[in-house]
Automatic annotation (TrEMBL):
A Pfam family the protein falls into: Aldedh
Active site annotation, chain numbering: 263
Keywords annotated in UniProt: Oxidoreductase
Domain of life: Bacteria
Species assigned in the record: Roseospira visakhapatnamensis
Record flagged with keyword Transferase: no
PANTHER family assigned to the protein according to its UniProt record, in alphabetical order: ALDEHYDE DEHYDROGENASE-RELATED
SUPFAM superfamilies: ALDH-like (SSF53720)
Name this protein carries in UniProt: Acyl-CoA reductase-like NAD-dependent aldehyde dehydrogenase
Length: 497
């Protein structure tokens, strides 16, 4: 295993050097079973490395290390913990290019448009939360003038974190940065499709943090994730993934009566009024659909409602914009769009596209598959824009998690708000208009946890993020998330009479 954390330039060599290990108690460690599994480059189908295949024994080792470290970590002054977490962010900022290239290699996300940006936000998230150590404040309660009554914030203990593959660095940082500053220790179970960059981050941070404070396991859900959620010493679970798995995690947490934060699926609506800046709205649809990420985003604006008077010109401009995007090698600076993460995911998305066609919708394929023979086995997929699609067609109702956008006509404002809310999900939404009254009304009525006007920004530090309905429980990326989800409040009464 590499002991040197000098930024590396060759992601292929780094992937090999990181192969076959967890990071437990500050040290690289092979799986207790000795098993490992292949990590695949989705752009070529080639094996780029191996990941340790964790199981119950590995979870026991990692949680035990975290539990041992937690006492001293919690006793450390909060501002000092914050300084260490901020130092991790500063160190990770030195590795942005390295981490961006490595995550592009194992996820297939384009380096220029996606992976380098994610690595930058990763570092920023640690710096942001590192500055919030002094905000772990209690209160003075006017209970009785003859008594002193105060509250204090205390950590929940060991936090089990399970992250997905689509933005593994950002989603991990949103969870572990506030957990660490609040005085908890963490055990992260990475996504089996994208374990290596997360492992590298853990290695870099373990040069700064005390041993056992941040531990990382790789493996599959039933064998590694489930034992982590069920472990008796885990006091909190934070999970991002599918609704189906989220319900399993929630039931396990409920059985143990421990808190769980769940960031689950989405089917985000984007409403474009007739007075909207059309060019800006087209840019927003390209960004909001996360076409550069092959639509593999829970906040993807996959339901686009366009006023009838501008519908046709909007569709044509959107088609032209996506058509012009270059699909190719994720590590090539000229590439706009990378790959789907796995063959199983591509087959699932293709199934949704076929279902949309079978429903009678008009399918508009965009962009072009790469012509490079070296990419012939890559998991590339042309984005599809559906028009004239029924609201109950599978691509319009279900989370596709692929580059599939459904564009609907509307003429009645109240009806389109009702249509936008007609979903089991409620993660994100946006309204595009020049009219302030319409914007204010829509933000009030849209049933989503993250609503934007005339923009489709991705998650950023200090923006409270989380959904309603089937999109999850709890908020992330803000001071609120650190206080409410990674501490509990203790009431103390002094009666010295």
């Amino acid at each position: 295993m590499p002991l040197d954390t000098t930024p590396q330039t060759d992601p292929f060599a780094l992937a090999q050097a990181l192969s076959g290990a967890h990071l437990i108690d500050g040290q690289f460690a092979a799986a207790a079973s000795g098993k490992s599994f292949d990590v695949i480059n989705p752009a070529t189908g080639a094996v780029i490395g191996q990941a340790a295949e964790g199981d119950t024994a590995d979870v026991e080792r990692a949680v035990s290390a975290a539990r041992r470290a937690q006492t001293d970590w919690a006793r450390m002054p909060a501002r000092q913990r914050g300084k260490l977490v901020a130092a991790c962010g500063a160190r990770l900022n030195e590795h942005v290019e390295e981490l961006g290239r490595l995550v592009a290699l194992e996820t297939g996300k384009a380096l220029r448009t996606e992976s380098r940006v994610e690595a930058s936000v990763l570092a920023d998230m640690f710096v942001f939360f590192g500055g919030l150590g002094s905000e772990l404040k209690g209160e003075s309660v006017p209970f009785n003038p003859d008594m002193m009554t105060v509250t204090v914030r205390e950590p929940v203990g060991v936090v089990g974190v399970i992250i997905p593959w689509n933005v593994p660095l950002l989603l991990m940082a949103m969870k572990i940065a506030p957990a660490l500053v609040a005085g908890n220790t963490v055990v992260v179970k990475s996504a089996e499709e994208a374990p290596l960059t997360v492992l590298r981050v853990c290695q870099i941070m373990n040069e700064i943090l005390p041993a056992g404070v941040f531990n990382m396991l790789s493996g599959f859900g039933p064998e590694c994730g489930a034992p982590l959620v069920h472990h008796a010493s885990v006091g909190k679970v934070s999970f991002t993934g599918s609704v189906e798995t989220g319900r399993i995690v929630a039931r396990a947490a409920a059985d143990r009566l421990i808190p769980a934060t769940l960031e689950l699926g989405g089917k985000s609506p984007m409403i474009i009024m007739d007075d909207a800046d059309l060019d800006r709205a087209v840019d927003g649809a390209v960004a909001g659909m996360r076409f550069t990420r092959q639509g593999q985003s829970c906040t993807a604006s996959s339901r686009i409602y366009v006023h009838d008077s501008i519908h046709d010109v909007f569709v044509e401009r959107l088609r032209a914009r996506v058509d012009a995007m270059v699909m190719g090698d994720p590590l090539d600076e000229a590439t706009d769009i990378g790959t789907i993460i796995s063959s199983q995911q591509r087959e699932k998305v293709e199934g949704f596209i076929e279902a949309g066609r079978a429903s009678g919708a008009t399918a508009i394929p965009c962009s072009a598959l790469p012509s490079d023979p070296a990419l012939a086995k890559g998991l590339f997929l042309r984005p599809v824009i559906f028009t004239d699609i029924a609201a109950d067609a599978p691509p319009a109702r279900e989370e596709v998690f692929g580059p599939v956008a459904c564009v609907f006509r509307f003429s009645d404002y109240d009806a389109v708000i009702e249509a936008a809310n007609d979903s089991e999900f409620g993660l994100a939404a946006s309204i595009w208009t020049r009219d302030l009254k319409t914007a204010m009304d829509a933000t009030r009525r849209l049933e989503a946890g993250f609503v934007q006007v005339n923009q489709n920004l991705v998650v950023q530090p200090n923006l409270s993020y989380g959904g309603v309905k089937a999109s999850g429980l709890g908020k992330e990326a803000s001071l609120e998330s650190m206080l409410e989800h990674f501490t509990h409040k203790k009431t103390i009464i002094f009666n010295m009479t």
